[in-house]
């Protein structure tokens, strides 16, 4: 299925490295653990999360001195699964918007990470599920961003509110929500500018958009979705730090998993930030966005 295919590169690189590390070894010894640590770090799991995983495996080795290397994959799988479960965030259910109308999703992230594509895919899914969806083109900093979102609107047959390039993003967001209310629409997805110029600037801009939204829909935005490009590995972790400091991100979308061997970043981000990974992007087509499920993810990785 799509998830397995999407994780192919990560899987191949990960497991071929592990197989190499255990060649000629029958038990999991310090050397194997050192190699495993390096493999996890180079698969972009991140140092902090890697050390947690290694410690868990060390504990198991301490209990069973002659742990066979043939069991290593299974043990690793169990410990990664357990670590993801400990991240107090539950997996999302599809379209459970519990009566908030319009349900407002504000989408943030730097340019090029796949923000527009993710919005398009999401609009498609939500509309297919029977919701009335509207998009707000509040990334008014780049002409291309407004055009792209309009194109996606046409492609997936969803209404787009736009005031063109250089318009005030807050004003576009306001318009979008006002017309969503007037049109009795279920879900409004607001694109925002992907500039990470400086922390205060970003914070002010996002706060302004949020405040304006609340004038129309109290409690909005219900979801602040941060889009990150998984193929950038540690950069994605850095962007996650910056955006979570600037605003209350409460859901993550990790894109481009299909093109990268850095899928381990999903494990690292999920562990470090305690913000649920809600979606993963596994291709460029409008159907290539999946709800993230921890168990499915680990199963696919180890299949
Ligand atoms: P934005 O600048 O953040 O809005 O980025 P775009 O949405 O324009 O995406 C940048 C490029 O990444 C485009 O060529 C997309 O087709 C591509 N892209 C986005 N998501 C994915 C994904 O999950 N997988 C792959 N392979 N490509 C993606």
TrEMBL record:
It is found in: Cell inner membrane; Cytoplasm; Cell membrane. It is an enzyme of class 3 (hydrolase). Its EC number is 3.6.5.4. Residues 66-93 form a coiled coil. GO terms for cellular component: cytoplasm; plasma membrane. The lineage of its organism: Bacteria, Pseudomonadati, Bacteroidota, Sphingobacteriia, Sphingobacteriales. Belongs to the GTP-binding SRP family. FtsY subfamily. GO terms for molecular function: GTP binding; GTPase activity; signal recognition particle binding. Involved in targeting and insertion of nascent membrane proteins into the cytoplasmic membrane. Acts as a receptor for the complex formed by the signal recognition particle (SRP) and the ribosome-nascent chain (RNC). Keywords: Cell inner membrane, Cell membrane, Coiled coil, Cytoplasm, GTP-binding, Hydrolase, Membrane, Nucleotide-binding, Receptor. GTP binds at residues 109-116, 191-195, 255-258. This is Signal recognition particle receptor FtsY. It comes from Pseudopedobacter saltans (strain ATCC 51119 / DSM 12145 / JCM 21818 / CCUG 39354 / LMG 10337 / NBRC 100064 / NCIMB 13643) (Pedobacter saltans). SUPFAM superfamilies: Domain of the SRP/SRP receptor G-proteins, P-loop containing nucleoside triphosphate hydrolases. InterPro entries: AAA+_ATPase (IPR003593), P-loop_NTPase (IPR027417), Signal_recog_particl_SRP54_hlx (IPR013822), SR_rcpt_FtsY (IPR004390), SRP/SRP_N (IPR036225), SRP54_GTPase_dom (IPR000897), SRP54_N_sf (IPR042101). It catalyses: GTP + H2O = GDP + phosphate + H(+). Gene3D superfamilies: P-loop containing nucleotide triphosphate hydrolases, Signal recognition particle SRP54, nucleotide-binding domain. CDD domains: FtsY (cd17874). Residues 276-289 form the SRP54-type proteins GTP-binding domain. Part of the signal recognition particle protein translocation system, which is composed of SRP and FtsY. It is a peripheral membrane protein. GO terms for biological process: SRP-dependent cotranslational protein targeting to membrane.
